[in-house]
Amino acid sequence: FSLPCFKSDSPDASKDCLTREDLKAWEMELIETQNNLEAQRLVLEAKEEELRVKMIEIKRLTNLAQLMVPEHMRQYDIEKIIKCQKIVRHWLARRGFIGYEYETSAVGKILQTARLYWSSTLGKKEIHRKKLIKELIETERTFVLNLKSVIQYYQEPLQQSAASKSGIITKTQIEELFPDLKEVAEMHTEFLQDLDEQSNIDLTVGSVFMSIIPKLEIDADYCKKFDYATETLKELRTNPKFSAFLTELSAAATIKHDLKTYLIMPVQRIPRYKLLIQQIHDNTPMDHIDYANISDSLDAINNLLQHIETDKKERESFDLVGRVQKNLSGYKDLVVKSRRYIREGDIEDQDLNDQVHVFLFNDLIIKTQSKGNSKYDFISGLVIDFNNFAVTVNGESNVHYYFFDSQFLLFVCSTI
Length: 416
Prior knowledge:
Layout: H1 20-68, H2 78-94, H3 100-103, H4 106-119, H5 121-162, H6 171-177, H7 181-201, H8 206-212, H9 217-236, H10 240-250, H11 259-282, H12 291-327, E1 328-329, E2 341-349, E3 354-361, E4 364-372, E5 375-383, E6 390-394, E7 399-404, E8 407-413
Helix pairs in contact: 1-4, 5-7, 5-11, 8-12, 9-11, 9-12, 11-12
């Protein structure tokens, strides 16, 4: 290796040596190269910063996309989903179906994944499920406000009035008109608080319903007494003081409904629960964390409604026994706690050679003579035990004949 010599001004100097001008040009080229490298370094730093910002945005969008996915699906790796999307979009891009540059970018893949999910059937069900839960909570809130309104504007003023000698109605009538209403309001206020707290955590309501189901017996007891409350309200409307009280309240801006509408709300609430829980159940996947509790809640609500319906039929049947007793002359003590009305009708009595009116109960048959206007005179009766009945069916007329101790019992019917 030999250093180049510097060419002097002498004409005898070697031509292979560098001149001062060459050295200066070389220096300028080196400086330019350094400047270019510095510019490239700055560009790389800018790109590195841009990449860092994009990575932060990708991470944010990834977290957002994961939040969009229902809790029961979050165990699936979002990166694997993105990888599958990438393979499909590469294939489509090579065939010119989509814009390759945007669709294959990291941000584009995240957004497309989110849009694909929300457009899927499962996504639509999850959206609808959340709307139903919101409807459940908001209708419960309105229900509680209505209960508090009827207590504040109707029940409590009447109770205060009943404490004086010139009260609008008596304490007994208040108890019949508002059966256990404050207990109902307290229970549903607690239920609403539990729903609000749970919905703020993870939008699951099944566990809250399972905890409140036993307490809904308070509503069931209210339903049992509702018919009596309605009868009491009907009778009280003939009371001038009570009618004036209702008229005054109906003109108030704070009262949104009449008293009868308020009183029927607890009766309507449990069937409303069944409808909402059924819809939430239909929009909850089987592998969802809330599915088991929602299913159990739906079964419990159905059982409670069946119990309420059975009690209602028993009550109506017992009330009909009282109606018969009221219109029957010559027979006392017809109303017994275990006795239930089944049916009644006219038949031809061969012994009397006349038409008689027969009442059938679960343990008794009585024969009466009609006096008109739904009034009857007692003729005779027979205590019966349906466990000892033998039933034959006439296939042509589809009429059931009932026998007891081999003697025809007067009563013929098509169904029982």
